Amino acid sequence: MTAPATQYDALVLGSGPAGLSIALGLSRVRRRAAIFTKPNGAGFRNEGAAEMHNVISRDRTPPAEFRSVATKQIRNYGTVDFIEAEIVDIQQTTGENGAPGTFEVVAENGRSWTGRKLALAMGSVEVFPDIEGYRENWPHNIFQCFFCDGYERSHLPGGVLGFPNPAYAHLAQMLNLLVTPSSGPATVFSDGPVPDNEAMQAALEKVRALNFNVETGKIIRLVPAVEPDVGVTVVVEGGKEYKLGYLGHKPYTVLAGKDVITKLGVETEDNPVMGESIKTVDPLGSTNIKGVFVAGDAGTPMKAVANACGSGATVAAGIVQQLITEDMEVVLASKKSS
């Protein structure tokens, strides 16, 4: 006789810092959950990074080590199943007589799992610009956040890539905090003539006030340094080269697993600079679909490990709040009918 399928309290799609934090929170109150370790085949955004930074008590910890320790601690509770499966479909069932429905996720091989709540923690994926060598330098030489990276190379010259967007003036100002006597002035690369409009000229005024170099030549390629050296050489038209310790650039991001998310009816939003994210409707990470939550990079333009951990813990609280509310309604109804 085949054993009945497990009915989980929650299905957690994604096992990065956000998904692991959700799983830990649910474990602490004895809720059963399944966490999917590769729900969309996209991997982890910080996979190529040697260390995590700006994470209290875990500064300079390798990302893989962080995930390994967290997974071991969660397994010790015995309430979470870790499942390696690529999810290709999500369906929502309707409950009977007004009862809450459930969610079913389906893997590439046809296997499925059901849960009362669904947490989207699959993260996001960078869309790299069409510059030769960009991919080979991401993320170990190109940094999207100077809170997360840059300090360790602040003795070396730095630069900002993609300057034609005036929003990059802010990234340049952040980079200026890392400028040291040994690094010398930083360089911003406009990748062509600077547009003659008010916003761009105001941004240009700011970076020049900081004594940055401004390179307007077209970028030809980015060449990673050969170990034991670190950094990247920016080659611009005419053969001019800039040997830098690092570059700042924030590429546009898209939602990992967007097809299955939008099919479910979850609302998303698009920031032309920061990229796509899932809309939330309350402080606990709820989406427009009741029972569906979002945590981590998928739910915010502020993509960082510490933020993902915090949002995961918050979503765990949101899930449990909905569960106990529904369970209490069942208890009260049964008392009235007895």
TrEMBL record:
Gene3D superfamilies: FAD/NAD(P)-binding domain
InterPro entries named in the record: FAD/NAD-bd_sf, FAD/NAD-binding_dom, Ferredoxin-NADP_redctase_2
Keywords of this entry: Flavoprotein, Oxidoreductase
Stated family: Belongs to the class-II pyridine nucleotide-disulfide oxidoreductase family.
Annotated organism of origin: Penicillium arizonense
Domain (FAD/NAD(P)-binding) ranges: 8-308
GO biological process: cellular response to toxic substance
Protein name: FAD/NAD(P)-binding domain-containing protein
Keyword flag Flavoprotein: yes
GO MF terms held by the record: oxidoreductase activity
